[in-house]
Amino acid sequence: MDDQGKGLIVTSGQVWKEQRSVGLSLLRNFGFGKNILAERIQDEVSHYLDQLKNYDGKPVDIKRITTESAANIICSIVIGKRFEYNDPTFQRLLTEIAVCFSSHKQAALITFFPFLKYLPGHQILVQNVKSILNIEKDFIVKSENKDPDDIFIASYVAERDSRIASGETTMDEMNLLKSVFVLINGGTETTTTTICWFVLYMLNYPQKIFDEINTHIGNNRVPSNQDRPKLVYLNAAIKETQRLASIVPQSVIRICSKTQTIRNYAIPEGSLIVPNLDSVLLDKKIWGSDADVFNPDRFIDSKGQLKKPEEFIPFGVGRRVCLGESMAKTELFLYLSSLIQRFHLLHVHPDPRPLLDYIHGITMIPKPYQLKLFERAYT
Question: Quick one: which residues bind heme (predicted)?
């Protein structure tokens, strides 16, 4: 697919530097890493939990509801709008995003074997991306003239116009569209997938996290971002989920800017480099012989404090580390602490072993599963 050297992912040089710098600056203005964003997330989490309550112990696959909720958070920032979960345009966008992430593993092959783009299968992928871009292009048209203090799109347009007036800039409509594509799609799917993996693991390990929440927060209020340092085991379980599920096994492709020699291997200038995060996150030399076992305690030190191993790299490394890392951490904490505080998570079937199999697309998506949720009875 021809990205025309635009956006936050496939660009390099001055284009990438400016898009990355502007994108990060604007997102910080909208509260990334601040309590104002946490409050927005908490509002959406409340809607999410109320939707789950409606199932009242009936078997449910939470993936779609979780997708709708996660998408609403990033949409509220990017386009300044929260959708009703049954909105037709919203549903169409989420369906296309799901197809994109579950079936686009093949798209990476075209980077290395360009002739594959002439095969029919590739055209299906192209049409999928075009469908998403058309929906998001309409978002831009409806948002670009609104208050730049409230909407990423309007803020980008205002910054672009200012830079055009004062000199040259790489900011333009296509860079904006591709940035919106990355923010909405990536901000929706990776958070959703992590939550679904966490819940799958928690079907076997829920009690310890609930006890921690009950001790430090209780049931008289919902968890807040200020509670994050207190819930050490929950944070460790989130990290272990990100490590073991390895949600995004390969990071953003890089280009070797000049010939390098690493361990006697010559890497020519212009070579494409695919960082394999999977090989680090599951390496038994790093994590021990039980690296393929879910064990949150590996992230807790002898003093009961949360460890931060340098090998823990689910968001990538270097200057191209995930732009939404701080938002993702806040989302995961608030969603998962609130979910465990409010609901019992139970297996649908008597066999307690979860099916830890996955669909390998751009992300490692757990195969569909159902569970039962019961509201906790507090006295």
Answer: 322
